Amino acid sequence: MSGLLIIIAAFFLPLFPASLVFNRLAAGIANPFARLALFAVWPQIGVALILLGDLAPAGPVLATWATLSALFYAFRMLTVREVGRWAAMLASSAWPLVWLFVMQEPTAANLIAFTLAMTVAPALMLLVRDALARRLDAAYTGLHGGLARDLPRLSGVIAVVTLAAMALPLFPGFFALLAVLSGATLGVALGILLTWLLWSWAGARLLQGTIFGPRCGPIADDLPRSSTWLVAGLVVVMVAAGLIWTGGAV
Amino acid sequence: MIELQWLIPLLPFLAALLVHLLGGRMGKRVARLSVGINLLVVIIAAFQLTAYIAGDTGPQWMDLAGGWGSLQLDPLSAIMALVVSGISLVVHIYSVRYMIEEPGYGRFFMLLDVMTGSILLMVMAGDLITLLIAWHLIGVVLYFLLAHNTEPPTAQRYAFWTFITYRLGDLPLVLAAVILFQAYGVLDFPTLFERIAEMPDVRTFMDLPVTGTVAFLIALSAFAKSAQFPLHTWLPYTMEGPTPVSALMHAGIVNAGGIIINRFAPVFVHSGEILHLLFVVGLVTALIGSVLMLTQNDIKKSLGYSTMGQMGFMIMETGAGAFALAIFHLIAHGLFKGTMFLGAGNVIGSARKHDGVPNDPLYDFLVERKSAPARLPWLIIGAVTLIVPLAILVMAHAWVAEDFFQKQGAIVLLFFGWITGVQVLFATHRLDTENPIRMMALIILSFALIVVGYSFVGHSFETFLYPDAAFRDALYTAAGIDAVTFDMLVILLALIVVLGWMGAYLTNVRRQRVDEGHGNTRLTLYSLFSREFYVADVYDRMTVSLLDLSKRLNVWFKWS
Question: Whole-prediction pTM value?
């Protein structure tokens, strides 16, 4: 595997410390659509580099590096309160797992599907960030809690997206993690499981800082019905795609 | 018949969807829709169980679309489907009025239906992925049910404890599934268990045996789900959730550990060491749960610790090789504890109406600790107390199975039965009554009836759940230890128990205060019990340290 290509790809399927670049870039983009586009395209550039460069499967050193990167960002997610940064860190924790999936020598379609499965939740979290920022002027957990009382539809969407971020069934992340685990060694498997646990912990903290607890903060309008149905439709498509994909990946 | 099995988990999910979609139009009447569908589930589950017993087809398996997504119909899934759906129906009916004034009425029924569907899917799952999905869903849905009242911080705090412990329990099962898939290359249970029986000595990571490693991981999962020490802290604190959720949790969800161990019995039969681990952890949990139950001044926490103790016994039974007994136990405990939770409101209500405590000999004896002077010779009392329960237990078990005493696990259970019987007689021989002989005779008769009934039902249940006698024996054999060590342990434990009784008797006779001369020890024990062995404090401290470290890292790396 070409050393230079690995280094370049390590920026796009971010391995620490190259991941600092993606996180700074994501934090610096104010336009929500541009940020969403960054999340959608960034990891696929890494995948393209791997596919175009016909890179051989990563070795144990790279596997350890990827696992530790995933673990490192999952651990840091625990105390991030700004939802946009939270989404970026989730991506920085999820995308290194693509390197581990590469070791199983998947087909190009499977590799792209795996990366997409790992991108869906951070991307959806960006939508949540935008919805919160528009209504409450800030998308910070713990700042305007108790949304479930006054904004049930938005709270429902936050809950569903957070469950997707925790890679719970039946979201694509769940099947992607099972796929990567099915070919992992013991050390890597333990690292992935610990990362998964930290996602759950961070997700639960996010829920507790937004939808649960006593209501505080400005009065705001709930998510319109049409937007809620749109997100629900997106989630259904996402789940269906994940279910169809697992026919070939697990 | 297997086709009908699909309706059992799918109908509650359909009910959840309908409740969500029609909630706005139907208002509070939507609960009746949920109850109606759950009633239908109970009818189908009862039909399936009856048809399975009456038919001669044996276990069946069916997938949905080739690959994962399958269900099975076997004795464990048939009986548990009926139990789970039955308890869930009672909880549904109870909730219709109980939750009527709570906000989020429709949401509550939707979550209750998803939970019912998830548990049913778990008990009937026919492959590893379906089981994992159901196993994960239970923890997530329980989190939202416990946090149903979204505002009180305490409810959120303890819902979080439950969620994170359940997540801790989810992940070992994932690793177990991965190891099984890597080793045997299949997902469906029938083929998987067939291959394990053919090749039990396959090795995995670091040349560890697959069966032992998988059994260990499944045991870890079961410990978290069934509140085994030290993963128990969530259970006594989850009373902040709605009462119907407490009932469903204590009667059904917490039993998941026993169910999963039974489901993987073909793995545990090759993992004697892990069965010993189950026994030890179960025993420690039963002891700690019982001690903490007795020392609580909060009735709800006391009930929580009672469940923990019972779960300890359940896990201990599997460790003794009595897998079917664990299921029997969890069903009996589920019905009993569910009734207690759902009846608690009535008890509190009637206590408020009839102020004043009952004043009868039983109350004086149990609560006021006022015992009558001994009226029978202590030697006779002692002999009857020690020998009669043992004789009843031995005769009852010899009646149902002649070879019963060749199994160490059975001896362990007999031992516990004997302690229970003696304890009842020992505790009641000083009860103030006009005719002490009649009272003792009645207690012995009740004990005999319970033991005989239980032995017969328990044995029949074991034959139904594990029809293969060789497999049943293999489980007991796997749970066994060296005969000499076993005998020594039984004698040692019997001596400790008898000495304890003698100590308690002498203390009582001399009217000595229990704490006399043991000030420091008593104080230490008091601190340990009142702080619940500091387990939650340790977790709190760990959590704070980890969050602090995470924050420091973020500051160092400027949140990038």
Answer: 0.90
